[in-house]
What we know:
The chain is mainly beta and about 280 residues long.
Amino acid sequence: MATLTALFVYPVKSMRGIPYREVRVSATGLEWDRQWMVVDAKGTFLSQRTHPRLARIVPEITKDALVLSAPDAPTLRVPLTLTGPQVPVHVWKDSCVGVEQGAAAHEWVSGILGRPVRLVRVAPDMERAASREFAGSTPAPLGFPDGYPMLVCNETSLADLNQRLPEPLPMERFRPNLVVNGLPAWAEDHIDTLTVGPVTLRLVKPCTRCVIPSLDHRTGEPSIDPLPALRKFRFSKALRGIMFGENAVIVAGEGAVLARGTPCRVTFEAGFNTAAATPA
């Protein structure tokens, strides 16, 4: 039987993740996930792809503030109250709307990254959704993730990958929201729905990986790169990328709480035989 073994929330896009024992599901994914991001002067999002120092910033959500900390810097508190001017921002090809988080926040993050940047939060009336090409008719509103409400990863797949690497990597390198165990390696490729308690997700598209898994998730420094090993058996010509993990949309359970250790009910695509599944 599959089990939910880990939950991660990333309040600020491309900053450090927060492990949770339990977390509520919102309309756009896990509560507080990717509700803030750092943008340049043109409003374009920044990530560890080009600004690896973002990995050094540790977020925390308190009852009244987003709290950011980083080495050799004072703690920053950003009130959760939604005030400030709305500005146009961009995540890949999507035009979005962000709420400016104030001069103190801009200066603090600029100091960490060593260049002028701004911190913005998802505007309450922002309309953005996952690609209908993969999400289909399932409504999938988004905050600031790359493209889908949640990312699901399989512990057994990581174990198989780690056997091919000089040193094992932690799951945090791949920035999942949900981690499951008890499935064959790479069985996630064939999952239709994943139900955890009252929450049902539909896995709609493999996640194609960029350079971020090759960076130390705590420092942003270059580290063991899993992509060459993955490329040998996880490259998709159709998606033109290296696959690890599955993007998911929410079918049911908005407002419910996910808890680590909960058994999962899994339905697979027609014709997939879990008993016959073996690593690639």
